[in-house]
Amino acid sequence: MATIARWQESGLAPLAEEYLAKLVPVHTRRGLARNGDLLIYEDDEGVDSRNLVSALRVPSWLDPVTGVPSLGPPVRANGADE
């Protein structure tokens, strides 16, 4: 609830910066594109973009094999743990 209140008062940018700071190593710069994609700037390696729509398309809590909510860690379709 407090986070939603901060979002309404300050907008998304301060919350996004706080979240991104926890997401990647310190030596890596990160940001958000206008469309919500995660941008990761690696030292001398250019920019890696993670598509927001693709990330949200399949919920991480849904077991891809059974199609029901998973109670454990994700399992790949071939049965190997990730």
What does the model show?
The protein has a 3-stranded antiparallel β-sheet with strand order 1-2-3. The protein has a domain at 24-58. Helix 1 crosses helix 2. It has helices spanning 2-10, 12-23, 52-57; strands at 29-32, 38-42, 46-50. The protein has 3 helices and 3 strands. With 82 residues, the chain is an alpha+beta fold. The two termini are 33 Å apart. Strand 2 and strand 3 (46-50) form a beta hairpin.
Notable traits:
82 residues; alpha+beta; 3-stranded antiparallel β-sheet; 3 helices
Order of neighbouring strands in the sheet with most strands: 1-2-3
Distance between the termini: 33 Å
Kindly estimate the percentage of residues that lie in beta strands according to DSSP.
15-25%
The major pleated sheet works out as: 3 strands, antiparallel
Q: Nearest-angstrom radius of gyration? A: 16 Å
Question: Rough shape?
Answer: extended
Low-confidence stretches: none
Mean residue pLDDT: 78
Order of helices and strands: HHEEEH
What is the number of E strands?
A: 3
Q: Helical stretch count?
A: 3
**Fraction of residues in helices?**
25-40%
Question: What is the structural class?
Answer: alpha+beta
